[in-house]
Amino acid sequence: MTPASLCDEPMTTTAAHLSLPPVTADPGSLRAAWRIFWRGGLMSYGMLFNWARPSIYFPTLIGGPTFQLLFFAALGSYAAGRSPAYFALGNAVQVSALAGIFGMTMAIANERWFSTLPAILATPANRIALFAGRFLPFIANGLFVSLYAIAFGVIFLGVRFEASTLGVAGLALLVTVFSCTAIGALQGAISLRLRDGLFGANLLMLTFLLFCGVNIPVASLPAWMQVISNLLPFTHGLEAVRQAAAGAGLHRVGGLIATEAAIGVAYSVGAFALFSYLERSARANATLDVR
Amino acid sequence: MSAGRTLRLIGYVTWFNVRMLLVSEFFVLLTFISPLIFATLAFFLFRLGHGGSGQTLLYAALGSGMMGVWSTTLFGCGGAIAWQRWEGTLELLVNAPTRYDFILAGQTFGAVIFGFYGIVTTIVWGMVLFGMPLQATFPLVLPLSLFAAVISLGALGMLIATLFVLYRHANALGNLLEYPIWLVAGLLVPLTRLPDWIQPVSWVLAPTWGMEAIRGATLGDAPPWLAIGMCVVLAGAYYVLARVVLVYVLDKARRDASLALR
């Protein structure tokens, strides 16, 4: 094939595309924003989340959490003398961070790696819809991973839920997964400027294990660590899940759930603000594709 | 190729790989930061349960350090051949006049030795923050234990490198195999606490005997000769297996012209 024929073919195709009626959707309309939120979110999950294929998904998001539960249940019951169920439940909630943190980091930072960021930022698409649309698939994914791990804990490690407050535990879990995904979005926005975005994601995962009451009760930690615990996702949400599992109703854990939700909203707003700032800064300095 | 030149080659590649890993944020996290977090977690857990005596803290520090060694071995060796593919150096190395398994050995030893820095960091962390005593009941045996652990883990790393190359997503296997080996090798939880059927699995794993050799020299009542011997035996077995798999994989790749492909 000669270079000339290489050029001819796309020109014909382009001409065919040009003959299509122009898109009349108003980018500022609610319908366009909904489409960007829903379709864009699903597309970003499928294309930017590197783990969304069975050969990676199962070892990483099913196999890994399974062994994490077994490891901490064994370690905790041996070292601290507590029931394996305590550690199993904590880790079952925490493993949702695999989807929330790594997923959101990939969904945002991979735009740069795959060179789609300039194209996205060149569109007049509603930024809030664009950004919020990324959340939904990862919240669903985080919930799925966590529910799988909880089921594993129930079957093999003695995790028990009070039937009357199962809904409250579910609500607490949902809010916890949301706030975790929110800090993942912040990490994703930060990683737009970093050489290795997954460094921060890995560090967050380890931080949750130590600070958020996943394995060590927050009250047992030194005071300065408790301050950090209270600023992180999981701490309040996980406590709410634990209490609801033991039978506490919404009137008792509502405050914890509300605090967790507020933390999630704060991280979401912070992530969006940072993303907007980086967009403006990249436009002003012509550094969209430069690190 | 003379034995001297072979050792020089392995030593050079080892040093080169250590320097490469030092500039990787991921491996710095894996080797230096992750063991500190796991050690802190273990210290708190042991304090909750056992009161946190000096010996318990040293037990936890060594176990957490070895967890870092295993992670570095797993990810550093598991992706070794895949990275050479991505960087386009695999064809050059395979077709070089030197044997490729010597180059791979250097790479895997580099990852393992880099991982062992983590043990030192963890011990210093425990001493400074948790008042952990530094002691060794058999200080003269300790260097031998460390050497035995390095060669057995290095040989296991070679086997991992050659096996993982058959799987398209080596890092996903790394994510899968981190926690189970920490558990099955008894790095923080004694093997006696695990079901009986797990013990034969732990006997064929280098981290089990490497940990046993190091703990035996620091905390044991008798020198860990059995563990040191098992490290050497396993290293030999892993190397032979790795060589067989490597010859098969490279031969197949040459026949199918798929060396640079997956």
Quote the distance from N terminus to C terminus of chain B: 31 Å
Most strands sheet of chain B: none
Report strand % of chain A.
Answer: under 5%
Task: Give the helices and strands of chain B as they follow along the chain.
Answer: HHHHHHHHHHH
Taken together, the total number of domains of chain A comes to 1
Q: What Rg of chain B do the Cα atoms give?
A: 19 Å
Tally the beta strands of chain B.
0
Largest interface: A-B, 33 and 36 residues
The main β sheet of chain A shows up as:
none
Describe this structure in words.
The complex is a heterodimer of chains A (291) and B (262). By secondary structure, chain A is an all-alpha fold. Chain A has one domain. Chain A contains twelve helices and no strands. Chain A has helices spanning 3-18, 30-48, 54-79, 84-94, 96-113, 117-122, 127-156, 166-191, 197-211, 223-231, 235-245, 250-285. Mean pLDDT of chain A is 87; it is low at 1-15. Chain B is mainly alpha-helical and 262 residues long. Chain B is 77% helix and 0% strand. Chain B is built from eleven helices and no strands. Chain B has helices at 3-22, 25-49, 54-78, 80-87, 90-94, 100-130, 142-164, 170-184, 199-203, 206-219, 225-256. The radius of gyration of chain B is 19 Å and the shape is elongated. Classes of the chains: A mainly alpha (291), B mainly alpha (262). The A-B interface holds A 51, 55-56, 59-60, 63-64, 67-68, 70-71, 74-76, 78-82, 195-196, 198-199, 202-203, 206-207, 209-210, 215-216, 220-221 and B 24-26, 29, 33-34, 37-38, 40-42, 44-46, 48-50, 60, 167-169, 171-173, 175-176, 178-180, 182-183, 188-190, 193-194.
